[in-house]
Amino acid sequence: MRAVRRFTVRASLPESLSGLGDLATNLRWTWHPPTRDLFASMDAELFNRVRDPLRMLTALPPARLDELAVDDAFLAHAREAVADLDRYLAEPRWYQKQDDAELPPAVAYFSMEFGVTEALPNYSGGLGVLAGDHLKAASDLGVPMIGVGLLYRAGYFRQALSLDGWQVEHYPVIDPNAFPLELLTDGGEPVVVDVAMPAGRTLHAQIWKARVGRIPLLLLDTDTEANDEDLRAVTDRLYGGDADHRIRQEILAGIGGFRAVRRYCELTGHPQPKVFHTNEGHAGFLGLERAREIIQADGLAFDEALPAVRAGTVFTTHTPVSAGIDRFPVDLVQRYFTDGRLVPDVDPRRVLALGAEDNPGLFNMAHMGLRLAQRANGVSALHGRVSRRMFSRLWPGFDFDEVPVSSVTNGVHGPTWVARELSALLGRNHEELGLDGARGKPLRDGVSDEQLWALRRELREKLVAEVRRRVRAAWMQRGASALELGWTDTVFDPDVLTVGFARRVPTYKRLTLMLRDPERLRALLLDERRPIQLVVAGKSHPADEGGKQLIQQIVRFVDDPEVRRRIVFLPDYDMSMARYLYRGCDVWLNTPVRQLEACGTSGMKSALNGGLNLSIRDGWWDECYDGSNGWAIPTADGVADPLRRDELEAAALYDLLGHQIAPLFYDRDAGGVPGGWLSMVWHTLETLGPRVQASRMVREYVESGYLPASRMVAEATGDGYRGALSLADYRTKLDVSWPRVRIFDTELLIEDAAPLVTGTEVTIRARIDLAGLEPSEVDVQAVVGKVGDGDELSEPLTVPMSGDGIGAFAARLKLPHPGSIGYTVRVLPKHRLLATPAELARVVHA
């Protein structure tokens, strides 16, 4: 028989154990070893199996709970853990110790997925795990943040393999009551936010709250009886459905998410956010709702509200290619916004203009995100450069480097990802693991190479045991008999160089680059003196047939009895599997097509555990590789043929593995310790450790994003929106005057016919008609730089020019470069509420 409905009943705890409920439902336990120890002490075997305190409380027999309720030693341990959590939640931390009254009282962080823990399966991959690490680091630093997303009743898919190696997806339905979530209520009734839908319908969403340390995470859920059947399914699956389903999710995440934040703060007294951070463009519609709120509450027009909205928005793009941006047909967007019910008082034509792109039939979510945010960034230095070039059409007339998209390189949450055994060896507690600077004694103090090598082998041995367990389970799932799986007991060897490759499987990540020359790979795996073993994992999007074919190619190769003890594919890659891989692998492999990996944080997690990266110089590795912390796979950037490029880069990969990496790993001293290898491991731990921390990332967001945004919001909204109104008036004036601004002539003057050498002082003059604009309303610049055959300036020096009030402008400067030099003059808008001169995408050149 099948149940017509499922629900979860939580354990009823004795009064003396009531504090366990708070410990189990606050997800700080995911990065706090003492709390996990407390639950493990209740039943070690059960805890190791479920790895979830809340599930454990439900699974423990009532008799065991009764025993613990009168166990003085356990109760003392529990009281200590509860008191420690209370201190953590209340004490001033880094953010509270900053002496700056302009820091925002709260920041709202929007993401379509949050990978906090496998106990809350609301993520698909790197974007979600990054969002989870962002919240954890914000909690540790005391940043007053509210996370906002959707709760997916079927989550992301679980992955299995068919007998012929094809990815098979299934979607287990979840009951929110079984997870560390609580329903937001008011007077005992669920709090509901409403979002207008076409044809006079309304989408209702209830709000679940997870506690991520100090951070509330609000997740909207449409599976409620108040909705029509199709609307109940809006939050059914992560990244599922057609364009209509997807736009409903993104409308709910942005507009409904903003309304949820407002309601949550009203009910709880949490400070209302002053700054809004969108992790990718999915929740970008929230800017429209913020404008609607200002228009209705304060009587401003849309153009007057827009500066206040932009001032308080930070937009992070993770997309290095245009094809990866969410786009919707314009007529679909019109369907949701034309009747004016979704965001009243916001003209639908203005909505469409925000998402406009070269193709007039498409609405571009990234373009809307950039137009509604005053601050935008990529997620590595290289990705920032790629993004500036990719979005440069929005800022015509500006050099790529002037496009207002900066970069904040991603980071990972050390306390979540570092092996507990390693932190103990290095004398670091869970707090110190999350720090982005040197703290306490140097890492090597009192720790020998022999100790570190023994620990690395211990972690590798744990990975081997997990690999064997998962390989056996995967074959059983594919239909094999237990009687024919004895070989799985000898898969992998804890003394063999272990390489890991695990990530999502879009084609650009090149899962099968390692198979480019199967015989060379086979020779590396089976080398009698210096063998290599390779663990591979990853999921392809259910609609990505090309990605599934790549997985099938790998599976068919690893199924070969000759190599299957040295290479495996582990299905259903998730956070629980990832910990074994990051901690146990000696080398972390990454082979994307260069400039298509925005950041790629998996290698960071490996580095924190003493793994060495072997990667194409893309994403974070491009800026962090130093020649001693791993290996960079040479790239065939100038080769246009992708097959030829793959062939060359695969050959370079094989050469590195066979001629550099394996020899170094197996080069041992008399005690069996690879000194050269460990010197690279120590260097990695000491130098990369601080750089790849999420705490470093969040501090950068605070200092370069949240704080300046908060200051700009105060400028824009203070004194009855005086700043926003001023900027709106200024933009109206520009609309009239800017097309008529002219630079008539320019000249470069050299005093006393001095020879032209580096450092020679020159004067640049220009006559300019400002078409009614005041000199204080523009920034007139002389730009001098090297000039090539195409007359394009490089390495420019920019100097402000001063005017005489009647159209003559001049600047004195020293020639900065030898060789061919050129100059130009340009006029830019100038207003105190502009974050960069390029912000308004207006420039007049000589």
Automatic annotation (TrEMBL):
Keywords: Allosteric enzyme, Carbohydrate metabolism, Glycosyltransferase, Pyridoxal phosphate, Transferase. GO terms for biological process: carbohydrate metabolic process. The modification N6-(pyridoxal phosphate)lysine is found at residue 605. It comes from the Bacteria. It holds the Pfam family Phosphorylase. Its EC number is 2.4.1.1. Residues 13-120 form the DUF3417 domain. The keyword Transferase applies. It catalyses: [(1->4)-alpha-D-glucosyl](n) + phosphate = [(1->4)-alpha-D-glucosyl](n-1) + alpha-D-glucose 1-phosphate. Its cofactor is pyridoxal 5'-phosphate. GO terms for molecular function: glycogen phosphorylase activity; pyridoxal phosphate binding. Phosphorylase is an important allosteric enzyme in carbohydrate metabolism. Enzymes from different sources differ in their regulatory mechanisms and in their natural substrates. However, all known phosphorylases share catalytic and structural properties. Belongs to the glycogen phosphorylase family. This is glycogen phosphorylase. It comes from Amycolatopsis azurea DSM 43854. The lineage of its organism: Bacteria, Bacillati, Actinomycetota, Actinomycetes, Pseudonocardiales.
